[in-house]
User: Which sequence fits this backbone?
Protein backbone atom coordinates (compact mmCIF):
# COMPACT_ATOMS: atom_id res chain seq x y z
CA UNK A 1 0.00 0.00 0.00
CA UNK A 2 2.79 2.44 0.86
CA UNK A 3 4.54 1.81 -2.45
CA UNK A 4 1.36 2.68 -4.37
CA UNK A 5 0.97 5.90 -2.36
CA UNK A 6 4.58 6.84 -2.97
CA UNK A 7 4.22 6.23 -6.72
CA UNK A 8 1.02 8.28 -6.82
CA UNK A 9 2.63 11.21 -5.01
CA UNK A 10 5.73 11.07 -7.21
CA UNK A 11 3.66 11.11 -10.40
CA UNK A 12 1.60 14.03 -9.09
CA UNK A 13 4.76 16.03 -8.33
CA UNK A 14 6.16 15.37 -11.81
CA UNK A 15 2.98 16.64 -13.45
CA UNK A 16 2.79 19.76 -11.26
CA UNK A 17 6.51 20.58 -11.64
CA UNK A 18 6.23 21.01 -15.42
CA UNK A 19 2.75 22.51 -15.56
CA UNK A 20 2.32 26.16 -16.48
CA UNK A 21 0.47 27.93 -13.66
CA UNK A 22 -2.51 29.99 -14.77
CA UNK A 23 -1.32 33.05 -12.85
CA UNK A 24 1.98 33.33 -14.75
CA UNK A 25 1.96 35.69 -17.70
CA UNK A 26 4.86 36.51 -19.97
CA UNK A 27 5.30 40.16 -20.74
CA UNK A 28 7.41 41.38 -23.62
CA UNK A 29 10.66 43.01 -22.57
CA UNK A 30 10.55 46.77 -22.75
CA UNK A 31 12.43 48.29 -25.65
CA UNK A 32 13.44 51.81 -26.56
CA UNK A 33 12.91 53.42 -29.94
CA UNK A 34 12.54 51.03 -32.84
CA UNK A 35 15.96 49.72 -33.83
CA UNK A 36 17.90 50.96 -30.79
CA UNK A 37 18.16 47.48 -29.26
CA UNK A 38 19.86 46.23 -32.42
CA UNK A 39 22.90 48.43 -31.80
CA UNK A 40 23.21 47.66 -28.09
CA UNK A 41 25.62 44.85 -27.27
CA UNK A 42 23.47 42.33 -25.40
CA UNK A 43 26.11 39.56 -25.56
CA UNK A 44 29.57 38.98 -27.02
CA UNK A 45 31.07 36.16 -29.01
CA UNK A 46 34.54 34.98 -27.94
CA UNK A 47 36.10 36.95 -30.81
CA UNK A 48 34.61 40.19 -29.42
CA UNK A 49 31.74 40.67 -31.89
CA UNK A 50 28.43 41.73 -30.33
CA UNK A 51 24.87 40.60 -30.84
CA UNK A 52 21.88 42.89 -30.35
CA UNK A 53 18.26 41.85 -30.67
CA UNK A 54 14.82 43.42 -30.83
CA UNK A 55 11.51 41.59 -30.50
CA UNK A 56 9.04 41.95 -33.35
CA UNK A 57 6.48 39.82 -31.53
CA UNK A 58 7.10 38.32 -28.11
CA UNK A 59 5.93 34.70 -27.71
CA UNK A 60 2.69 34.34 -25.78
CA UNK A 61 1.13 31.21 -24.36
CA UNK A 62 0.59 28.85 -27.29
CA UNK A 63 1.99 31.36 -29.83
CA UNK A 64 5.38 31.69 -31.50
CA UNK A 65 7.41 34.89 -31.37
CA UNK A 66 9.84 36.59 -33.73
CA UNK A 67 12.88 38.79 -33.22
CA UNK A 68 15.53 40.38 -35.42
CA UNK A 69 19.18 40.46 -34.43
CA UNK A 70 22.45 41.91 -35.64
CA UNK A 71 26.04 40.81 -35.26
CA UNK A 72 28.47 43.73 -35.17
CA UNK A 73 31.71 45.22 -33.92
CA UNK A 74 31.90 48.52 -32.09
CA UNK A 75 34.93 50.67 -32.89
CA UNK A 76 35.41 54.43 -32.67
CA UNK A 77 31.70 54.87 -31.92
CA UNK A 78 30.81 53.09 -35.17
CA UNK A 79 28.70 49.95 -35.42
CA UNK A 80 30.02 47.72 -38.21
CA UNK A 81 28.16 44.55 -39.27
CA UNK A 82 30.02 41.25 -38.86
CA UNK A 83 29.44 38.30 -41.14
CA UNK A 84 30.65 34.99 -39.70
CA UNK A 85 31.85 32.06 -41.75
CA UNK A 86 29.57 29.14 -41.14
CA UNK A 87 25.87 28.91 -40.34
CA UNK A 88 24.12 31.12 -37.79
CA UNK A 89 21.77 29.18 -35.52
CA UNK A 90 19.63 30.21 -32.56
CA UNK A 91 18.82 27.77 -29.78
CA UNK A 92 16.50 28.34 -26.83
CA UNK A 93 17.84 26.65 -23.71
CA UNK A 94 16.54 26.34 -20.15
CA UNK A 95 19.70 25.73 -18.08
CA UNK A 96 17.89 24.92 -14.84
CA UNK A 97 15.92 22.14 -16.49
CA UNK A 98 18.61 20.90 -18.89
CA UNK A 99 16.47 21.12 -22.03
CA UNK A 100 15.61 23.41 -24.89
CA UNK A 101 12.54 24.24 -26.91
CA UNK A 102 11.38 23.67 -30.46
CA UNK A 103 13.84 24.58 -33.25
CA UNK A 104 14.12 28.27 -34.15
CA UNK A 105 14.14 29.24 -37.83
CA UNK A 106 16.90 31.75 -38.74
CA UNK A 107 16.70 33.78 -41.93
CA UNK A 108 19.61 35.96 -43.13
CA UNK A 109 18.26 39.39 -44.12
CA UNK A 110 21.53 41.22 -44.87
CA UNK A 111 25.19 41.25 -43.79
CA UNK A 112 25.11 40.52 -40.06
CA UNK A 113 21.32 40.98 -39.90
CA UNK A 114 18.91 38.09 -39.24
CA UNK A 115 15.34 37.22 -38.31
CA UNK A 116 14.58 34.43 -35.83
CA UNK A 117 11.07 32.99 -36.03
CA UNK A 118 9.22 30.05 -34.46
CA UNK A 119 10.49 31.25 -31.05
CA UNK A 120 8.61 29.36 -28.33
CA UNK A 121 9.30 29.02 -24.62
CA UNK A 122 7.73 25.77 -23.44
CA UNK A 123 7.39 26.83 -19.79
CA UNK A 124 8.04 29.81 -17.51
CA UNK A 125 11.43 30.27 -15.95
CA UNK A 126 15.02 31.23 -16.70
CA UNK A 127 15.99 30.81 -20.37
CA UNK A 128 18.97 31.52 -22.60
CA UNK A 129 18.86 32.57 -26.22
CA UNK A 130 22.01 30.99 -27.61
CA UNK A 131 23.51 32.30 -30.84
CA UNK A 132 25.70 29.63 -32.42
CA UNK A 133 28.12 29.88 -35.34
CA UNK A 134 28.35 26.36 -36.75
CA UNK A 135 30.37 24.64 -39.42
CA UNK A 136 28.62 21.35 -40.03
CA UNK A 137 27.95 19.92 -36.59
CA UNK A 138 30.80 21.78 -34.87
CA UNK A 139 30.12 24.99 -32.93
CA UNK A 140 32.83 27.55 -33.80
CA UNK A 141 31.63 30.38 -31.57
CA UNK A 142 28.69 31.26 -29.35
CA UNK A 143 27.04 34.08 -27.42
CA UNK A 144 24.02 33.91 -25.14
CA UNK A 145 21.45 36.24 -23.62
CA UNK A 146 19.66 35.27 -20.41
CA UNK A 147 16.00 36.15 -19.90
CA UNK A 148 13.08 35.24 -17.69
CA UNK A 149 9.90 34.10 -19.41
Assistant:
Amino acid sequence: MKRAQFTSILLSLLVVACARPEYVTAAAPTTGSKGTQLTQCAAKFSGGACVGLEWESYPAEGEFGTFVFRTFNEADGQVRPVEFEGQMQVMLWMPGMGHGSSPVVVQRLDVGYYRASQVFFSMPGEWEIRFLIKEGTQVRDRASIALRY
